[in-house]
Model the fold of this input.
Amino acid sequence: MEQTDEATRRQRRGRRTARPRRRVSVVGVIGEIFLTAGVVLLLFVSWQMWFGDMIIGSQKQAEANALAQQWEAQAAESPPAPDATIEPEPAEPVAPVEPAAVPVMSEPDPGAEFGIMYVPRFGPDWRFTIANGTGKKSILDAGYVGHYEGSAMPGADGNMAVAAHRWTSGAPFDPVDKLVVGDAIVVQTQDGWYTYRFRNVEYVQDTAIEVLNPVPQQVDVAANGKYLTLTSCAPKLNMLERIISYALFEEFTPTSAGPPASLSEGGAA
Done:
């Protein structure tokens, strides 16, 4: 009898000390499944976008390279200069001729491809075609560097303003925050290469349209130099702020002279 009572007491103590089992809820299981699926989907989309940017970027760089080769081939086919060994006939003395002005092309139609941008800091293969306009679907989402219509053309007095994505569509301006003062930013057209030098960067709201003025950030001031302004989102995917990179014109190299030394400068973003 005593043994039976002792066993009963042990059973009661066991019931008091035993932890209740956690009941599995159907709602909880479904919630965990959705949470796991969401994380996997987010990782997959991020990978897809990164991989897609790499593919599109390579494609756009190949297209820019083909356009550059086309221009160089056309320049090579142009009529050769007169033979310098042939003694020219005496001519009347003329006044000294000043160095040729930097050629400036007329602004093309919207959507037209007219230039190629190189930034050695971003790597030897970094090059993207410049198209006229900044339409999201037709220009920026297509992987171009977009030229703000009405802004200066390469080599012209005033402000050549351009824009490009930092995320998706090849992400041309992804490494724009890696620029260092003095870095070359080269714009090639059919006439030749225009070398600009990076000077400074600033972060502004998306409403700060003054960065596109003939003299950036100056209101009602006439153009007093040759500027290049790069605009993009900062940070990435933020549509309310912009990173603005400014550069000043340094020199023009005609196509016939071959690529400028600025294109072979080192540096890696």
